[in-house]
Amino acid sequence: MTQARGPFEVKITPQSGLEPPLARMAIEKRYRGDLDAEGVGEMLTAATDVAGSAGYVAIERVAGTLGGRTGSFVLQHTGTMSRGEPSLSITVVPDSGTGELAGLSGRLGIEIREGGAHFYDFEYTFGAGGS
Q1: What is the rounded (10 degree) CA torsion for 34, 38, 41, 45?
Q2: CA–CA separation, 12 and 29 (whole Å)
Q3: pLDDT for residue 8
């Protein structure tokens, strides 16, 4: 596995069409560092009456350069908070890599530091279709 790290900025814009406790958001991201790319996607969230408990799913298309290779890929997000305890899984959708990123697979982790700065840690490899 190869590792890519760096900061990213995220903009989340609420969308209409769902009734609470559900919500839909548009996502825009700018990755910097080892992954130099832009991400766009959609997120669905569900809140609960219990403080610190919620869930979300999202699909995000990322386009740019990773490790000197250019192309795009799709990330699938699944996250829950259970009374303040987070659980997050962000994985590359199989066979979603295009261009020089064909065959990409991997998992992306997110860290939000004090003050709100966002950082990613992306462990990835290339299999079928990549070299």
Answers
A1: 60
A2: 9
A3: 98
